[in-house]
Design a protein that fits this description.
mainly alpha; Serine Threonine Protein Phosphatase 5, Tetratricopeptide repeat; 43% helix; 0% strand; deoxyribodipyrimidine photo-lyase activity; flavoprotein
């Protein structure tokens, strides 16, 4: 017979609690999401399927021409156009990375080739890298000490810190904003992912696998290899350089006016930009004046990175530059960058 046009024709339709391995809390959250609808604060309205994926490629490349400024905007956190946002469709197989690359090559030949066009392809290659990374190391990407045999760390079980991190109540505005966005929409920017992973694993010292598991439960673009590989690297458990992020500095660099933070942490709407990175440093009279109702910062342990066998790398400047030389630009652009591409670390993989 014909396929029913609506679920109403079925005698039984699964509820969130019927999902395999669904915890009561996860089932409750799913039911609430279905009941309440999508969060109006979301970066964009992700809808599944090939047609929607192709429409996004068309919009990002050909209609808006946002592709040509991707390198400059990719570290954004607010809105729908600072990055390609193709990750959910790629993860679910709605669009092929080869198709995306073919469209970019076409764009380069017809409109412009620059660092931005190169960088999107480069990040798709990072996505492939983690497939091979997982293939090489197998189940080690799920192990506490990861894929390196010469590095270990004293990971902690801290229920209070983990709960605060999950709920966006750590007292660190940038962390809280990103974690609330994830829980309410299933998405988080690449810049946000790097910061929340660094905070949980390297600042709080909590078993990093709790973070990877949380991402697995909530990300629309969840991909086993990318998620666990990136978390393993963020925790310093791949043997590479340890990249510990200074959360206050990251806030000042990437959300200096606090627009993103206020978007997701309305308790901070009256906090001046000068104090948005660390409200705990506001003068007491100002805190009282705006009636600030925001948690104090979680107390973090003192950690010695000699336990990792490596000290944290140099301060990050916002993310690994580089471009590709050797080919002339297409119509409307200048020559491609002459310097060779580089990335600051294995965790510089961008999620689309």
């Amino acid at each position: 017979g014909s396929v029913p046009t609506s679920a109403g024709n079925f005698e039984w339709f699964p509820k969130p609690c019927d999902l395999p391995f669904a915890t009561p809390k996860l089932a409750q959250d799913c039911a609430a999401l279905i009941s309440n609808g999508v969060d109006e604060r979301r970066a964009m309205d992700f809808k599944g399927g090939e047609s929607q994926a192709l429409a996004r490629v068309k919009y990002y490349l050909w209609e808006s021409k946002l592709l040509q400024t991707y390198f400059e905007t990719r570290n954004g956190m607010l809105g729908g156009d600072y990055s390609t946002k193709l990750a959910p469709w790629l993860a679910l197989g709605c669009v092929s990375p080869r198709y995306v690359v073919s469209e970019i090559r076409k764009y380069e030949s017809e409109i412009m080739e620059n660092k931005s066009t190169y960088w999107v392809i480069f990040e798709l290659i990072w996505r492939d890298f983690y497939k091979f990374f997982a293939l090489k190391y197998g189940n080690k990407i799920f192990h506490l000490h990861g894929t390196c045999s010469n590095r270990s760390a004293a990971w902690r079980e801290d229920d209070a810190a983990l709960k605060a991190w999950k709920s966006g109540m750590t007292g660190y505005p940038l962390i809280d904003a990103n974690m609330r966005e994830l829980k309410n929409t299933g998405f988080m920017s690449n810049r946000g992912r790097q910061n929340v992973a660094s905070w949980l694993a390297l600042d709080a010292g909590v078993d990093w696998r709790h973070g990877a598991d949380w991402f697995e439960h909530y990300l629309l673009d969840y991909d086993t290899a990318s998620n666990w590989g990136n978390w393993c690297a963020a925790a310093g458990m791949t043997g590479g350089r340890i990249n510990k992020f200074n959360i206050v500095k990251q806030t000042k660099d990437y959300d200096p006016q606090g627009d993103y933070i206020r978007h997701w942490v309305p308790e901070l709407k009256d906090v001046p930009a000068a104090h948005i990175a660390d409200p705990s440093q506001m003068p007491r009279d100002l805190r009282d004046k705006i009636n600030l109702n925001y948690p104090n910062k979680i107390k973090l342990p003192q950690r010695s990175y000699t336990e990792f066998g490596s000290t944290p790398g140099p301060k990050r400047d916002g993310g690994g530059g580089g471009g590709r030389g050797g080919r002339t630009a297409g119509r409307g652009g200048s020559s491609a960058p002459k310097h060779r591409a580089r990335v600051a670390s294995i965790y510089e993989s961008i999620y689309g």
